[in-house]
């Protein structure tokens, strides 16, 4: 009978489908061609060179442009705004650190004064003597930085109406201040004691700047840390880095947020020629610019070890409306480290 199912056949078997041609000749790509021993000698040499270059890229360690101290372990990752640029991260992290120290403010006036206008700690009654070194300090260098001049920077003592904090007082003499300052020293592998943190020989303004820039994401091709400001100033001046984040511009100049402004200290406070700055030998002080108000002729910058704290300096500009080296003798500005990052 036509169409009948033969006896014994599986009546539930699925009808055979016609196999269509395979759409792709191969689902996976061919393996990378290998150089066989029978390959011509030039081809084998080219393969060997390519393999060596690949292995070298995986194992080569790029050395910094100058010797760099190994930072102590530090897992802290400051939180910044989503999508913040490197320049914005620098400003945000510096501002966060200033807030952690209590938000101290110092006014550098056109009247040649330098006064604390706000501090989270009361004014000291009497300047205490510097504490003597303890046995635990013996393992650390006696002088850790060249930025060791008296923090009055050669000026006479301030008037009674002008609040200031001598060495051994202020926020750096508190347990919180000691902890935070020692944290900055870790960026160059040092572990000073709380006694040393309050001494001029361990001025921590340069390691504060170094810590902020590292936490903002700048690598060793862009910025190298240092325990003295003149180290990274000379790096920028001499252009030794492969991808420098900063370049030097002499004053008078108008800085921008994210720039670093620097002045000479002590014997070099009125240094005029940037070419005379010695690597690690010229005493300096530098701050991170966080805001500029051209209309009010005020630059706001945050620096470490300013009046024994991380302070915001409200810098009143002179008649030129730009940062200069003559308006305030407490901080005779010498140069601007221009931030070339976004």
TrEMBL record:
InterPro entries xref list: DUF2272
Bias (Low complexity): 131-147
Renumbered residue ranges of the record's region Disordered: 1-20, 69-89, 126-158
Residue ranges constituting the DUF2272 domain according to the UniProt record: 198-337
Domain of life where this protein originates: Bacteria
Protein name: DUF2272 domain-containing protein
């Amino acid at each position: 009978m036509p169409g009948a199912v033969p006896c014994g056949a599986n009546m539930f078997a699925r009808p055979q489908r016609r196999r269509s041609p395979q759409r792709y000749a191969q689902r996976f790509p061919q393996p990378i061609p290998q150089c066989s021993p029978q390959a011509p000698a030039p081809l084998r040499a080219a393969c060997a060179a390519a393999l060596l270059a690949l292995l070298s890229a995986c194992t080569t360690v790029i050395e910094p442009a100058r010797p760099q101290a190994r930072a102590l372990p530090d897992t802290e990752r400051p939180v910044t705004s989503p999508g913040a640029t490197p320049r914005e991260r620098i400003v945000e992290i510096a501002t966060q650190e200033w807030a952690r120290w209590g938000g101290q403010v110092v006014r550098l006036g056109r009247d040649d004064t330098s006064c604390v206008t706000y501090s989270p700690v009361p004014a000291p009654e009497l300047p205490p003597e510097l504490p003597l070194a303890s046995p635990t300090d013996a393992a650390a260098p006696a002088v850790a930085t060249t930025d060791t001049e008296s923090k009055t920077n050669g000026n006479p003592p301030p008037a009674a109406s002008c609040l200031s904090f001598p060495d051994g007082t202020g926020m750096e003499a508190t347990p919180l201040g000691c902890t935070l300052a020692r944290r900055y020293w870790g960026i160059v592998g040092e572990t000073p004691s709380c006694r040393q943190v309050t001494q001029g020989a361990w001025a921590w303004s340069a390691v504060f700047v170094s810590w902020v820039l590292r936490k903002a994401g700048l690598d060793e091709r862009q910025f190298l840390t240092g325990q003295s400001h003149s180290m990274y100033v000379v790096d920028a001046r001499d252009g030794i880095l492969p991808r420098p984040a900063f370049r030097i511009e002499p004053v008078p100049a108008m800085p921008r947020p994210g720039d670093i402004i620097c002045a000479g200290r002590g014997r070099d406070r009125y240094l005029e020629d940037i070419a005379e700055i010695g690597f690690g030998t010229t005493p300096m002080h530098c701050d991170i610019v966080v805001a500029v108000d051209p209309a009010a002729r005020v630059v706001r910058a945050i620096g470490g070890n300013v009046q024994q704290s991380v302070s915001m300096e409200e810098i009143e500009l002179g008649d030129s409306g730009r940062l200069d080296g003559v308006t305030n003798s407490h901080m005779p500005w010498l140069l601007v480290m221009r931030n070339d990052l976004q």
